[in-house]
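Hello Y.,

Per our agreement to keep a running log of every chain we model this quarter, I'm adding this entry. I've kept the format consistent with earlier entries: sequence first, then predicted structure.
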Amino acid sequence: MKGLRHFARIYRISSVLMRYRLDEVTPAARLFTPLAWLRAFSGDKIGAASMPRGERLRRALEDLGPIFVKFGQILSTRRDLLPADVADELERLQDRVAPFPGAQARALIEAQLGGPIPQFYASFDETPLASASIAQVHAATLLDGRDVVIKVLRPDIGKRIDADLGLLKVLARIAERRMPQAERIRPQEVVAEIERTLRFELDLMREAANGSLLRRNWLGSAELYAPEMIWPLTRTGMITMERVYGIPMNDLEAMRAAGINFEKLAERAVRLFFTQVFRDNFFHADLHPGNVLISREHPQNPKFIALDFGIMGTLTPTDQRYLAENFTALFTQDYRRIAELHLEAGWMPAEVRIDELEGAVRSICEPYFTRPLSEISLGEVLMKLFAVAQQYQLTIQPQLILLQKTLLNIEGIARTLWPKFDIWGAAKPVLAEIMLQKYGWNAAIAEIRTRLPSWIQNAPEIPRLMHEFLKQSVSGSHQMNMRSVDLERLVNVTRHGQHQTVMAILGSGLTIVAALLFALEAGGPHIAGIPLAAIAAGLGGLWAFFAAWPHRP
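Predicted structure for the entry above:
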């Protein structure tokens, strides 16, 4: 049944691409050209032939569902990579996806709260303020008169996401079996990371908690504001939060009219990214313009207002430190250190020669640094570094996917606001300051002070533990317990190899016996009328067959 559902989904994707004639617009859709006969049966009922290419793409993504809309939202932030007409149309995916009826939204909210709207709100507007791929937003007023907004999940959104994720999982399993060097790309882990992110987006209580933490991290800041969550009126399927006002980040004309300092805003975007990632280890990972407003207050010292908290990112302490050092090395053009860090972090196989990796990184980066920094695209450098690293068996880290996407979004935002903005120059001092705070002497002393009580508490146990260890070592009773999926797999492979070796030896022996018996007249002795040589040859073949039988440990 699952196979049929996945086939049906692939067929639907193909038919949507053909319905909007995307094979005429983008080479990627031409993979589905053999299915162009679908158009012959359906005709052009929607008038796709007369639509601009951007509208075709946007409407196709809307028809295909939430995962595809998310992809379009990410693309829309990269005006430096897209034609202007396509970027303008894809921006509509950020908060202008076709809404569902307001009466249905009212019913969903009442079901979540367990009572009629007037019991909880003084007013409720059924006309949505914004409608996105996962949820839509309605204006309301609390009983105490405060203006709020209500974010409510789309009906049956979970089922649609489940269908798309099921298809992605099947494609990932196929890719792992068929794709060369799939162990480096790890498609199933990548899909698992996408699934984890989307599941989080479907839990609006979790999103509200994310927003609350971001608000606490930046409370009182002149750079970023996050609205207050109204917890008594928040549930898994809905959020009630303070209503905030500002200029949509993609409305450049309105920002010019308000006197917003674009260069300062671009610098602040980069500063916010590095501070969230390396100071807080909690960063907004869905920074498309539909999720961000610009405050009208203090236009020469502009402030970002965050609206959506469904996709937030964190890193392990190890990845956080290695990334910070990688950025620092890139800013100072220390290619040797970049190569060392990739090996130390385990992102590259240990057998890779560090001098070769250093040379490859230098060959990519050095041509860029001969140009003014304001003309260098950080995203372009990273993509080329990634392509080179793949030649050296780079292992993709699924936990870094959100960070990579966010960095590209930030660059897109900064370049849109101020095309000649020096991203490198803005990022370098911010990162240096954070590195000093997190990994400098003061940070080390603070860490020692934090851990000292625990060390003092455990100190009396150290002599006894050392005595036990030495006694076991002298008596030969010391045991080392290790548990690893890779080690277990290695043991299974070894056992299977031994099994295959024994089978192969037996098969070869029986084949040799058969050859010797056939050297005798009529194949040697007979058993039940069958030459013994034939029996030996058949058994030998069976042994060889089972020895070569593929086995996945």
